[in-house]
């Protein structure tokens, strides 16, 4: 990136070449505006963030302590405030991403109103949210640089050359709030062509990473609900190909595909796979189908389907819905086959949807996958659908019981109770929870940890607390004490909400455009001045 002073010099030469027609244009103002708008298109963002992800994946391969994280965000403002917070507290956005959850789009962003996670929302609403998130992240860059530019003007007015040079260095080395988004395309919203067309919309909006799941598109269910139906590998591979072609067509060669398998909790398939010879991919898929051996023609009824399975004729069990049933207990083996097949056919990362957060369970599957694909690594859903407190307390209970430790003071099925919060078991379970991401990154191949819909829950919780107290006895004190006062004391930028929304940026632009005639909003009568 060109430094501020070099940019000013180049723009000054450009202005001079206009023979006086651009004399009203100040090169420094134009240079500032360029710095505040580093990314001109979504494809610029997709290419930039794809490279970040590839670098992060390589860093993780070298040292598993370099795992990455994200939180699901359902609005541009939420994503913006998350990244501003990360920069404020940690000084960098490195290894911090955004997750775009199809669940939250369905629940919060559909024109139909709140919907379950069943791919019923408008397919373009996800691409629209990607664009919105990046619009707000770009505005965070503009907002932060605007404060640096104003500080630079103050330093120059005070004649403080040292401060001026310090600020120019900060401007030249400014770290953007633009980070990778892992975008949920569900099961592709239709056939492979539909998946390709939608993937292009995602990428054009800025997505460098697309997550695709192996469920049937028109039977899609949330990964943590019952009734999931998977597709044969050939169907899923076609959609992986469609996403890769979309990346390549748009010049995002480093685009990342996350192949998600729901097979661990899916007991049904929509159709029998095509197979040409024993042991091929279709035959392996069909080997998991539950069925009854056929010994004579009388075993076959009207409408029955018969396949050859392990050298025998078998009548697969078909439900009234027309769906076929897998053999009980085959979920993990199907997961392993799904993951190996996806990696061998163009996927970059895996997502295994599990029913609980258990390092040992995840590691056991990943170790089997790595016997064939040594560099396999996961994106893992640290899901709010898990009862984390109960899960980890029960894991500690089970570990103690296995060790022979006395657990008579605890009731396993009631460990959620507040009375266990300060017990030895409760505190150890919290420690296991605190270390879950570190431990599973090291032991279970998890490159990226995300929480799918945390900000859905935080919005509900904070709103409930404010409403309860504001409409109760505390009245205005509820907002002042628990919101505004905390914003001030914790340095939350939104306390100056006019500035956060772009008022100061607009004022500066007015000065650029109108000069001394600019009518600004930030004068002495602006109440934001009360916040210093």
Short description:
With 532 residues, the chain is an alpha/beta fold. The protein is built from 18 helices and 14 strands. Among the domains are: 36 residues; 286 residues, Phosphoenolpyruvate-binding domains (TIM Barrel), CATH 3.20.20; 44 residues, no CATH class.
Describe the structure.
The protein has 532 residues and is of the alpha/beta class. Among the domains are: 1-36; 39-274 and 329-378, Alpha-Beta Barrel (TIM Barrel); 472-515, no CATH class. It is built from 18 helices and 14 strands. Strands 12-6-4-3-2-1-14-13 form an 8-stranded parallel β-sheet. Strands 5-7-11 form a 3-stranded mixed β-sheet, with no helix packed on it. Helix 4 (76-90) links the parallel strand 1 and strand 2. Helix 6 packs antiparallel against helix 7 (161-172), helix 12 packs parallel to helix 14 (424-443) and helix 13 (388-403) crosses helix 14 (424-443). The longest helix has 34 residues, at 124-157. The two termini are 33 Å apart. It catalyses: D-threo-isocitrate = glyoxylate + succinate. Keywords: Lyase, Magnesium, Metal-binding.
The total of helices stands at 18
CATH topology grouping of the domain at 39-274 and 329-378: TIM Barrel
The CATH superfamily of the domain at 39-274 and 329-378 is known as: Phosphoenolpyruvate-binding domains
Q: How would you characterize the largest beta sheet? A: 8 strands, parallel
Beginning-to-end CA distance, first to last residue:
33 Å
Number of strands: 14
What CATH first level of the domain at 39-274 and 329-378 would be assigned? Alpha Beta
Structural class category: alpha/beta
GO molecular function: isocitrate lyase activity; metal ion binding
Active site: 222 (proton acceptor)
Protein name: Isocitrate lyase
Catalytic activity: D-threo-isocitrate = glyoxylate + succinate
